[in-house]
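Newbie here. two chains, one complex. Structure please?
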Amino acid sequence: EVQLVESGGGLVQPGGSLRLSCAASGFTFSSYEMNWVRQAPGRGPEWVSFISSSGSPIYYADSVKGRFTISRDGANNSLYLQMSSLRAEDTAVYYCARDKLGLRGANDYWGQGTLVTVSS
Amino acid sequence: DIQMTQSPSTLSASVGDRVTITCRASQSIRSWLAWYQQKPGKAPKLLIYEASSLESGVPSRFSGSGSGTEFTLTISSLQPDDFATYYCQQYNSYSWTFGQGTKVEIK
């Protein structure tokens, strides 16, 4: 069974940093492209970042470029999102989402999400 | 970025009704469109990809059509489990973008 389990969310002050993790199981992690997608309260999903199966290319939404860094660890079947210079508008549930094999952009499995709250 | 506009924002319908949701892209995305269903407190669930391909395990009452800039999601006979919010998403060019959502409510 495919599972994606996010962790690392919490309350952080504006300007602070946080590292999110996503533990993947039930599939060959190294074969799949992965994403972070966030959803602010009461809003629709917003794509944040993409990493290919090999680690390159990597893409970011303009709203997080220069502040967030996506990475992956094949040995530990894990996806990460390092977030810095956090702003109030980064407050959201953050999901890791797997791309459908061979179909970059269509997310066939999602984790349960981890809540990031940026507030003083 | 490509903008995705859904209509209506809210839809009231009864069990058994045929329901259609429209999604319009600000420029051509060919057939690189997905539809997701989301229930409160849950992650989105993929229903349709490549505009009209049904994801494995999704009931056949869901169907998608369109290409270029105009797309539709149709539920042929609304079931109680289908009351949820639906999002379209383009993946023609990064950054991938979602529509604002259509909430299907009980009439």
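Moderator note: The mean pLDDT of chain A is 97. Chain A touches chain B through 23 residues (CB under 8 Å). Thread marked as resolved.
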